[in-house]
Amino acid sequence: MKILYAIQGTGNGHISRAREIVPLLQQHGDVDLLISGTQADVKLSQEIKYQLHGFSFIFGKKGGVNHYETWKSMNLTRFIRDASKLPLKDYNLILNDFEPVTAWACKARGIESVGLSHQASFLSAKVPKPQSINWAQLVMKYYAPSTHHVGFHFKAYDEFIHTPVIRSEIRKLVTSNLGHYTVYLPAIDDMILLPILKQLPQVQWQVFSKHTKTTFTDGNVSVSPVNNEQFNASMASCTGLLTGGGFEGPSEALFLGKKLLVVPMKFQYEQQCNAFALQEMGLPVIWGSNKNWLPVLKKWVSDTQEHQFSFPDDTAMVIDKVVKEFAR
Q: Half-sphere exposure (CA, 13 Å, Cβ side) for 142?
């Protein structure tokens, strides 16, 4: 059997999930990997057969998407050319983690594909969503269309939705509490973030940043470039995680039993939905309309946070079911 697994390369969540899924797929056949997008810090250890430009949003430095750089990076002619060259008929199964080139190539040629992603869960009316303008929901629906859907979310809100894929390296971590707080906010510049964190001088912050290439310390804040192993070690021994409104990072923090505070990116619908779902579960959120983080941070640091989430290790079962049901 030949399998094509297409992965969105924007952010780290898609590739983090793929690190767990790829070895499972390889148990069922030959797997070719395709990645499009340019904003991930995490890498795959397996060979990438197709590295495409795709359509990616570019992280800004003020808490949202850099719309100008995002628009500038788009190349529709290249997108169409890349989609037309993919040998899709060579594959018995095409899986898509919110990757648009493969998705639209399949749609144009009438070839079935499986949307295997967190974003697939948003097709369910049962998933918590904030009120929003219609175009945001349309982008989620049509950015990477597929004929079949297998979703992941914080809860199994619907029949086709499963709890998060927690990487084996996270499941194996030995947790402790050394008193520091881990921070990953890729859409906020260090020079904006540090003055906020330094207002709580009694707290030790370990920041992992997309905006620096060197490690440095400023008062009670240490800043390092993003590194998967160092970040995992920091999170395993932290008191809590301050992060964006992504999916994999918050899921891993909840699995490890860490306190969690999320700051969803402004104008990023998926992160707004994630934060909305977490808020419904009683977890704190700093929304874009909040211009003064300090009271929320003080309360989060001083309060205990009791939560219990069951994220069973059933990824192999999910992949086995997908292969048996959708391979042709």
A: 7
